[in-house]
Design goal:
Blueprint lengths: L1 E5 L8 E10 L5 E3 L4 H13 L9 E4 L6 E11 L5 H13 L8 E4 L9 H16 L16 E5 L3 H26 L7 H9 L6 E6 L1 H6 L3 H7 L7 E8 L8 E5 L1 E5 L8 H4 L7 H15 L5 E11 L11 E3 L5 E3 L7 H15 L4 E6 L3 H7 L4 E5 L2 H14 L3 E3 L17 E2 L7 H10 L7 E5 L5 E2 L9 E2 L4 H15 L1
Parallel strand pairs: 1-7, 2-5, 2-6, 6-7, 10-12, 10-15, 11-12, 14-18, 15-19, 16-17
Antiparallel strand pairs: 2-3, 4-5, 8-9, 9-12, 13-14, 16-19, 20-21
The protein binds ligand BES and zinc ion (2 copies).
One zinc ion binds next to loops.
């Protein structure tokens, strides 16, 4: 989707739908969030009936004469008091969603204005809402949605500063959709090889993508990645994607994404209920790759490298075995107490590579790591662990802006003894309680003193039921948070 700004309501282009925003005032009155006598006269009779209460995302479609549009969509944004970016996103997303079954190819939006929200942020939130409202994964459906929105006209009364907002939103949301598509695809389609091929297609405009196969992984002695991947018909892969946007600087952020293309649980096979959604066990990898696409599209003046270990955690005669001991790239030996705790194993080898080969200023990993994170925080809040509070603070700020909630959890190093093993240097699972924490503590054993943050997105990356502006399936969390974090980081570095 692309945006075509127009400078005033009178100058808006003709479209299949024109969307006009309203809010509910404290007095109960329904108030327009724009000024235009003709449009207001057109909706007068609707407002007189009280059929429309301007609740967030509530939409009524009118078919009036003479409004330079075939349809007028009267959209509610909820209470005028305490308007938030996320409410704007949600309202637009819900409104647009109602057009999906209609043959709509063009839309104009009258941007709302509020006393207490910066116009730039309103604009950004509206555009993001439009993207969320139009996203649906249709690849495997024979009958596609009738709505196809390529261009959207948007009222942008100060077009100069807003052009930058548009550019950022498009890059951000293209990255989110890219990530969501990868996760929503069949696991047998998005196998490690195919994922690596898709990653390779991102190589342009200075983004370098290297794909390493099993031989390289063996040479690297990534014994844990090899162990997890050995049961599958697909060979493991390891992607290194590099962006050198600031060659003068030694600063570098390394992103690491968990890329389990399907998690059967290995030989300690998951139950029927728990295996559902496990095609999404590469959501961390997909998110990190999406971020790299946006970094490239926005040509951010900083250095970022993504490391993505990929394999399938399968069953079969070759599968790695409970109780067996495997050696990590770092030299540590690990006793496998659960073959289902595979994410931390492949991440351990990637983190070790990051620390020793990439000279990172900071490492951020993203992983669908533990069901315990979902139990603790539910499906809207990601868990964040870190050994560096300033990094957590910056990520929290970015997440608030992006509307992707996260909560900082304790990296309680004292739990390390829960991972003590009789037969090896450590084991991969401690006790059931505090499972998200012990998983993070396990990872911590491979990052040394490098500033590091770990996102556990097991609960937030793939939804079983539609929520907020997301349908069932992938959400693309935390792509926008990471992009915002990097954008802010690149500004403060200047
Ligand atoms: N991929 C799962 C975690 C997960 C759970 C992701 C639910 C998305 C939704 C991970 O590999 C796993 O199986 N973790 C186990 C760890 C346990 C064996 C210590 C878990 O959380 O049950
Ligand atoms: Zn698992
Ligand atoms: Zn997993």
């Amino acid at each position: 989707m692309r945006f075509v700004p127009f400078p005033s309501i009178e100058k808006r282009p003709r479209a299949d739908v024109c969307c006009v925003p309203f809010a509910k005032e404290a007095s109960g009155a329904i108030a327009p969030l724009f000024e235009d006598a003709v449009l207001l006269r057109t909706v007068r009779r609707l407002l007189d009936t009280s059929d429309f209460q301007a609740k967030e995302g509530e939409a009524v479609i009118l078919y009036p004469d003479s409004v330079v549009a075939s349809r007028l969509m009267v959209l509610g944004l909820g209470s005028a008091d305490g308007m938030t970016m996320d409410r704007i996103r949600l309202s637009y997303a819900k409104g647009i969603k109602q057009l999906r079954k209609k043959s709509v190819t063009s839309l104009t939006c009258i941007t709302p204005s509020f006393e207490h929200v910066l116009p730039k942020l309103v604009y950004r939130s509206m555009l993001e809402g439009l993207f969320f409202g139009t996203y649906s994964f249709q690849e495997y459906r024979t009958k596609k949605d009738a709505m196809v929105l390529n261009e959207v006209g948007v009222l942008s009364s100060a077009p100069q500063p807003f052009l930058e907002v548009e550019r950022e939103v498009v890059a951000r949301m293209d990255a989110v959709s890219f990530c969501r598509d990868l996760v929503n695809r069949n696991a047998d389609e998005m196998n490690p090889q195919r994922f690596a091929e898709v990653a390779s297609t991102l190589e342009k405009d200075g983004l370098r993508v290297l794909v390493h196969g099993k031989n390289w992984i063996e040479q690297q002695r990534m014994g844990l990645l090899l162990a997890v991947g050995q049961g599958a018909q697909y060979e493991p892969q390891f992607i290194v994607a590099e962006w050198k946007g600031d060659p003068q600087s030694h600063e570098k952020t390394v992103l690491v994404g968990k890329g389990i293309t399907f998690d059967t649980g290995g030989l300690d096979l998951k139950s029927f209920e728990q295996m559902k959604g496990m095609k999404g066990d590469m959501a961390g990898a997909a998110a990190v790759l999406g971020v790299m696409q946006a970094v490239r599209d926005l040509k951010l003046p900083l250095n970022v490298t993504a490391l993505i270990p990929l394999c399938e955690n399968s069953i079969g005669s070759r599968a790695y075995k409970p109780d067996d001991v495997y050696r990590a790239r770092s030299g540590k030996s690990v006793e496998i107490t659960s073959t289902d705790a595979e994410g931390r194993l492949i991440l351990a080898d990637a983190l070790d590579y990051a620390v020793k080969e990439e000279n990172p200023s900071r490492i951020i990993d993203v992983a669908t790591l533990t069901g315990a994170a979902e139990v603790a925080l539910g499906s809207e809040i990601s868990a964040l662990f870190t050994n560096t509070d300033s990094l957590a603070y910056e990520l929290e700020q970015a997440s608030i802006h992006a509307g992707e909630p996260l909560w900082k959890m304790p990296l309680h190093i004292a739990y390390e003894d829960l991972l003590d093993s009789e037969i090896a240097d450590c084991k991969n699972v401690g006790s059931r309680s505090g499972g998200a924490i012990t998983a993070a503590v396990f990872l911590h054993g491979f990052v040394g003193s490098t500033p590091w943050a770990h996102f556990d997105i097991a609960g937030t990356s793939l939804l079983k039921e539609p929520r907020r502006y997301f349908g069932k399936g992938s959400t693309g969390v935390p792509v926008r948070t990471l992009i915002d974090y990097l954008i802010t980081n690149s500004i403060s570095d200047l």
